[in-house]
Write a structure and sequence with these properties.
six-stranded antiparallel sheet, about 20% strand
């Protein structure tokens, strides 16, 4: 079964009127529009149970955590104008079926229906994709709001958000064959704020995901890859080898590592590390990326820095990922090892600088009774840090 409306005018009428939408045998009522871009529209919908639905869309879910208690989901509608666009949507659906991971947005259901094109409505198909809803918005939305208020994520939240993105990418990179997301950026990261916990981070939009490994053996193949990247990979987060591809190169998952490094910078400072070039007279985004020219914010700059500033080790971590030569860039497993060390050391150093966390805890009287002291804890933590860094 298709959808109860078709066409742009009907689309907006349906949003305002709360019309029903059918995705296969399940009916949804549109609550409101969440966003749009190009020929795609995203809506908040609520499932309307019917006798024909036989328990609703949730019966299709492999993971029960995807079931919305209030019946609300995000529905993406894509207006497809030609066969190329149709194949792209089909590829996104196919790739989404390959993975299941808590930090990758799952496709819960989908339908593609043919429609009659008219001069006013030139699309030939409409695609409906159903996802879990994350109403706290994207990392880009959150960063934009925080930047306007001169707020920053804490170092702990930066590390936890980044670690979750690493986990999602590791899952993609571990498929057989490995897949690259190809468009890792703050606008493709959904956040859900949780009380007393770091935000949940979920990577979305797999329309550009492709097998990661590509052999380029001619100039024509290199130019084809550059043209594809210009259409599918966001410029401020695009790896150097996708800007100016050599005629002899093996492309692999490390195109994602470059984008991941840019995204870590953006988690901290709200922008890509190379967007400064767009605001400079005669500046070139491509040249800044090709040369790996990172411009770190300063306390005197317009963007500002958090107080206290992020550790220098985080800056070095970003630089490690943003090496213009892809062969010297780390792989995702290397990054996860190091970010886990960062998380361990961050917790440990908090205890080192604030040992009253020990003595102010329910274990405090016991620690005092057995003769532990601040100096003893300091020494113990120093040993732990030294052993962990070996």
């Amino acid at each position: 079964m298709g959808c109860s409306f078709s066409g742009l005018n009907a689309l907006y009428d349906a949003v305002n009127g709360g019309a029903d939408v059918w995705i296969n045998d399940n009916r949804f009522k549109i609550v409101r529009q969440l966003g749009e871009g190009g020929f795609a529209y995203v809506f908040l919908v609520r499932e309307a149970f019917t006798a024909a639905s036989g328990g609703g869309v949730s019966k299709k879910f492999k993971d029960p955590s995807h079931i919305a208690e209030d019946g609300t989901y995000a529905m993406k509608k894509v207006l497809i104008q030609n066969n190329d666009q149709l194949e792209l949507v089909k590829e996104e659906i196919r790739v989404s079926a390959l993975f299941s991971h808590p930090n990758l947005l799952p496709l819960l259901d989908h339908a593609i229906i043919p429609v009659k094109a008219t001069p006013e409505q030139p699309w030939t198909h409409e695609a409906y994709l159903l996802f879990p809803v994350h109403l706290d918005g994207t990392l880009l939305d959150n960063s934009t709001t925080m930047k306007s208020k001169k707020q920053f994520f804490s170092t702990s939240d930066v590390l936890h958000i980044f670690r979750q993105l690493c986990a999602g990418l590791k899952h993609l990179h571990s498929l057989d064959p490995p897949y690259a997301h190809n468009d890792v950026k703050p606008g493709n990261v959904l956040l859900t704020h949780r009380k007393g916990q770091p935000p949940l981070a979920v990577l979305m939009d797999f329309g550009s995901a492709r097998p990661a490994k590509r052999q380029i053996r001619s100039r024509s193949e290199a130019l084809q890859l550059q043209e594809w990247a210009s259409e599918h990979v966001s410029a401020p987060f695009r790896a150097p080898e996708l800007w100016d591809c050599p005629s002899q190169i093996d492309i692999d998952e490390r195109t994602d590592i470059w984008s991941l490094g840019c995204t870590l910078f953006a988690i901290m400072y709200g922008v890509s590390p190379f967007e400064y070039a767009l605001g400079e007279s005669g500046g070139s985004l491509q040249l800044a990326i090709m040369n790996g020219q990172i411009k770190w914010p300063s306390a005197t700059g317009g963007g500002g820095v958090p107080k206290p500033p992020y550790p220098d080790a985080l800056h070095q971590f970003v630089s490690w990922m943003l090496q213009p030569q892809p062969t010297v860039r780390p792989l995702i497993d290397d990054i996860i090892i190091h970010v886990d060390k960062f998380l361990f050391l961050h917790k440990t150093l908090i205890l080192y600088h604030f040992p009253f966390f020990f003595f102010g805890s329910p274990f405090g009287p016991f620690l005092i009774q057995i003769g532990w002291s601040n100096n003893f804890i300091h020494c113990s933590l120093k040993i732990l840090i030294f052993m962990f860094l070996l």
